[in-house]
Amino acid sequence: MQAEDLVIRPERPDDESAVRAVNEAAFGRSAEADLVDRLRLDGAVLVSLVAEQDGLLVGHVLFSRISIESAAGPLPSAALAPLAVLPANQRRGIGGRLVDFGLGSLRRQGERSVLVLGHPHYYQRFGFSIDSARMLIVPFPAEAFMALEMVPDALRGIRGAVRYPAAFGL
Fold this sequence. Notes:
The chain is an alpha+beta fold. Helix content is 25%, strand content 34%.
């Protein structure tokens, strides 16, 4: 695959079944595809992008609205979940391009922070850090929960529980 052959674009309504298929294939189960459907229904989607090659969807990333319940009140943030690439197309930079494009979209929308649960070695390349998320209370292992400050010091001194949409089932 040549990089110029790949198109990253916003998800369209007619992409829903292909997005489901990508998520099911990437994760080997339907849980992440079901999460995407529930986030759409709940109206919690901030950015949903697809990677398309030769008319075939090969990747998908979704960012949704979450909040951090701090002493100063609720602070809006974004969650990156899920990120999926068809198994035959993995390790070719597609996921990275989806994340980069998604973060760019969030910056243009004025988002201040993004949270992710995932592999630290993968997400650190985008600026996510475990240290930035250390004061946030989440039901996940601390060693896999990271934050990215889209605005310098957006999370500095912020302590509180992260509240996910009901679609996450947490």
